[in-house]
Amino acid sequence: MASLEVSGVTVSYGGNRVLDGVDLTAGPGRITGLIGPNGAGKSTLFDVVSGLRRPAAGRVSLDGRDVTRLGPARRARHGLARTFQRLELFGRLSVRDNLLVAAELGPDRRHAARAVTALLDRLGLEHLADSPAGALSTGAARLVEVGRALAVRPRLLLLDEPAAGQDGPETERFAALLRSVAADGTAVVLVEHDTGLVMDVCDEVHVLDLGKVIAAGTPAQVSRDAAVLAAYLGDA
Amino acid sequence: MDGFAAFGIVGLTTAAVYAVIGSGLVLTYVTTGVFNFAHGAAGMMAAFAYWQLSAGWGWPVPVALAVVLLVLAPAFGLLAERALFGPAQRLGQAERLVMTVALLSGLIALARWVWDPNVPRPLPTFFAGRAPLRLGPATVTWHQGLTMVVAVAVAAGLWVLLHRTRTGAEMRATVDDRTLVVLAGGDPVRASRAAWILGTQLAALGGILIAPTVTLDAAQLSLLIVSAYTAAVFGRLRSLPLTFLGAAVVGCTESYLTGYLPQNAYLPGLRLAAPALLLFLALLAFPHRRLRGSDERAGRAPVPAWRGTALLAAAIVAAGTVLAAVLGEGDLVTYGPVFSLGLVALSYVPLAGYAGQISLCQLSMAGVGAVVWAHLGADGAWWALGAAVAVAALAGALVALPALRLSGVYLALGTAAFAVVLDRWIFTLPSFEVLGVRIALFDQGSVELAGPRLFGHRLDGGAELMVLAAVCLALATVAVAALRRSRYGRRLVALRDSEAAYATLGGGLLVAKVAVFALSAGIAGLGGALYGMQLRSVTADQFSLVAGLPVFLVAVIGGLGAIGCGLFTGTAYIGPVNLLVALAPGSQNLVALLPGLAGLGLARNPDGLIPAMRAGVRRLAQGLTARRGESEVPVEWWGVRRPWRPEDGEVLARGIAGS
Q1: In this protein, which residues make up the domain named ABC transporter (chain A) (predicted)?
Q2: B27/chain A closest Cα distance in angstroms
Q3: Nearest to A135 among B496, B497, B641 (CB)
Q4: Can you tell me the distance from the alpha carbon of B21 to that of B200, in angstroms, rounded to the nearest whole number?
Q5: Rounded distance, CA B439 to CA B426, Å?
Q6: Could you count the other beta carbons within 10 Å of the beta carbon of residue B434?
Q7: What is the DSSP letter of B448?
Q8: Per-residue pLDDT tens for B109-165?
Q9: ipTM of the assembly?
Q10: B632 vs chain A: nearest CA distance in angstroms?
Q11: For chain A, which domains are there?
């Protein structure tokens, strides 16, 4: 059974359809890419899946359970975690406390402190553990946000441009981290403008343009798709 | 039928005034982003100035009107923009809000200083000598007619200004994007100044029109703004037509309640509280907002060290003991509230400092605690103190309900409305029964409070009560420090930093907000009970919205994120004020101005004085000379921006060795 199943999701702002009947699935242990030009509706779809925005139509299921009417906190308790395109760190807390808040809200709060120490080590963030999260550079802050999402031990992880601000070697390390997260059985949905990273790590890629899924398939299939090329490069 | 029409005319007249004032409020808010709590106070000052010129000094009415509306009001608006709110643009919404509260508090104190509140100042209505007009079954005085004509003219004038002039276009564009206005060759500063000038003129016009029909009282006139707030909230603080509609609803509701409310002892206050109740309901009817994202300008909430907390608690108890030993009985009554009002101020720390929820009704919660202790603790039983805390906490939880939908300005408005409902209605009720239980409040006057019993001995002396209050403040300070260090404290700070992130991690907003409102109201309730014991007799006025504003301001000046906020506020609010008055009895009015003036200086130090003082002490301890010798290398290669520390060298060396 798919961890995430989105069917026919539609969102409108005023008269403008930002998402138009979008379908998407993500399975455990797999990394699903979601790409598209700016304004395609990727972050809006994440908002709908995580419960921050109600769709005008459509359905969102987590592990086969319809969660369309549930709020973000209840969806999180069903195993969903996410990061944000615009950083949403707890800026006045230290990096360790950012992860600790998440771990204490997760399923194993009794061992939260130990889990956070292990997670800081896994992400290479020990040296920043006591720094205020609000003082971090963009690349480090995005990594902390990923760590905070991992601290709740999610079964479905939505990552919104997590590699923005990272250089080549950092991106490679991040790709390895994503593979290890998926290998643990987590379903990962990745929104990312670094198409190299997407093509490298994703098992399947969905392409959004103007609120509609215009292509879906393996990275190789999608990269040859005429509609995708037109969306990215223009019809000329 | 005649009565209905007559009340309708009165209601529409009042509505016209609210519409004029409310439209000024909306105009300032949408153009500058500042919700001006002092808007009504500006109208109040204009009304007093008009009285001074026309009735006081006998100037002709047209001259007095022209001076107030065309000289004083624009000058005040311009001064407010240039000296206060223009420079405050870089501050967060909460800090700007506090500055307007400071201005409100300062203007009320200034008016009471200049115009003795004990002297009646009747102001004649316009065209008072002319016979009223008859329109069918209704009679309309010339003053009422003029007021309605002015409201229509204001509506038309604003429409022309906003849609047919360059200044209006600039003002509307500034609302959308200040940067784009500059790129398009516009001047957002000019638009802001125009909004402040015009907004103040409209407040002045409203103040002058309503002053002849009410008592010329600084606090009463300033709080008439609650009705104008309600009108503005009907317009979602953006729409002028809906603001006018809201004004009509509020004005007519007040008028018809006056005419048709059944005569009994429980309902007169309802009419007075009606605008605040409507405001509360209008805020509750707001559509659910999206969860708030990160607030980069939020103030700090440092984790208190146990050692520092223990020292602070010991210092509080020591200070209480020393003061109790050296002060005479009279001075104990004067300076006793240092610790009990300190508790009320401390209640802001978890609520506003950690969780970022602005409440203007904490002194009302203290009033709830005082009332409960007065009635249940008459024989000194300790459980009654627990009951005072519990009932205040329950009232706090009630306030939390709108907080689920509101934040920032709207939450401040909601809590202010709650305080006004308590002031004007609930606290004035005679005793009543609910399910066979008799509930008494301030008994429509004052209530007596005695101290608790300890091992059979009644703690009734000023010295004993001062030590008790100091011990309670010390314990509460330790408890708040423990809270900040706890899982729940981390959650509150996380909630303030990003509601959206907190919720998507599985954090429940309802539980967190209700709990923090209840907790802080409980602390305030304890403070209120102790405050009452020290004063021995209290009235509802001592726990009103206006009385609570200076306490709030001093707490903000101290720093809402610091656990020393309670001691700082109690000391700064009670100590220097009474000391100055004792040394120079004529300085009472000047002293009343101090919290407002200090609050206006918030732009210089938004985190408060306590963090600045602590940093100063730390610098002193470390030795300024040694500090200057340290290199200030930013360690951005780690992804963190801060000065270089000695241990960074070791980490760098390990990194190089490992690469």
Answers
A1: 4-235
A2: 25
A3: B641
A4: 9
A5: 11
A6: 7
A7: E
A8: 899 989 998 898 989 999 988 888 887 777 889 999 999 999 999 999 998 988 888
A9: 0.94
A10: 16
A11: 4-88+155-233 (3.40.50.300)
